[in-house]
Amino acid sequence: MGTGFFGTIEKIPFKGADSTDPLSYRFYDPDEVVMGKRMEDHLRFAVAYWHSFAWEGGDPFGGRTFDRPWYDGEMDKAKLKADVAFEMFKILGAPYYCFHDADVRPEGRTFAESRKNLEEIVDYFARKQEETGVKLLWGTANLFSNRRFMSGASTNPDPDVFAYSAATIKSCMDATMKLGGENYVLWGGREGYETLLNTDMSREFDQMARMLHMVVDYKHKIGFKGAILVEPKPQEPTKHQYDFDVATVYGFLRKYGLENEVKMNIEQGHAILAGHTFEHELALASTLGIFGSIDMNRNDYQSGWDTDQFPNNVPEMALAYYQVLKAGGFTTGGTNFDAKLRRQSIDPEDLLIAHIGGMDCCARGLKAAARMVEDGALQKPLDERYAGWAKPEAQKMLKGEYSLDQIAEKVERDNINPEPRSGRQEYLENIVNRYV
């Protein structure tokens, strides 16, 4: 029996591209086979518990605009929120969800009380998962909202906050393990600084690395088979986040010997805030061997803030999923909608429509990307551009068989005087536009 929150809506159907029904999928058909795999298995959609059910619609200039029946309550309201959440997962046909601990359980007066509340709701989630077949893509800990974390969690100057954070992470890893989660994410919401006047950066890096090493050690101790993921973010809320982008995080992992244990959960909006494109961050993570999962949303390009809007730009999605497919696709990762309604979109139906539109947009992007891969539309010109490196002499240079002075001698002896060749950017952009 449903909660009634979404009225009489039971399941969003696939009706095809000609549909004008806002409560239908036009492009997302979970059973459609793309490159030999069902679309659902490619995209692995997940709903973000925090934005969809915990966020109240506030902004820096105004408070709650959403009126949800589970706000301002204890365990009974937390369970009602879970009932509505899993009902929505089933209505959408979303195979996964993601959560922070603070999203799902009431805050206790002590850590022990908060932990017990989390364990109770995890037991409830386990029953809901069994009833619905919906699975947990990843869990994480909220180490940023409470005032105790105002100076960071693992990077905090107070060792008691470090200890509290470690205990919180352990409880969330236990919860993720119990629910069969396929990844565990660390999002350093306040791991950074406001001013170097009161910050010992070297000390804070060492603290953050110690925490991450403990997380990896605990993963192996409990036999967690999923991936440990770090989510890069350049700024907001701190002036400078230590996990600025994929390259910065990789440098940190290499410095502390963690590059073979940790992968990336990459968000579209964070990539934009870092001054990159989403496909850049995805391609770099793949190149470095640390690609894991994605948070799908978009930013308002007129704003310097993380607006977390649902995706609606198909060309952007096509280029993103092109990089995902080139990386071999998702293994434990997936597409989590780290996106929220606009604070004026107050109706329950708006929550469904936002996800429907985002899922359709991703489906169109995936299909365009798959056609580009299958046709070699971008790979063939790329191979042609680098074809010279397949020649024996070029391979010898690359393998270190020639020294710098030997190469210089060869350039003079053979009168090597190369002419530049076009990069054909506009031609390639036009190719992409043919597919989207």
UniProtKB/TrEMBL annotation:
Its EC number is 5.3.1.5. GO terms for biological process: D-xylose metabolic process. HAMAP family: Xylose_isom_A (MF_00455). The gene is xylA. Belongs to the xylose isomerase family. Mg(2+) 2 binds at E267, H270, D306, D308. InterPro entries: Xyl_isomerase-like_sf, Xylose_isom_bac, Xylose_isomerase. This is Xylose isomerase. It is an enzyme of class 5 (isomerase). GO terms for cellular component: cytoplasm.
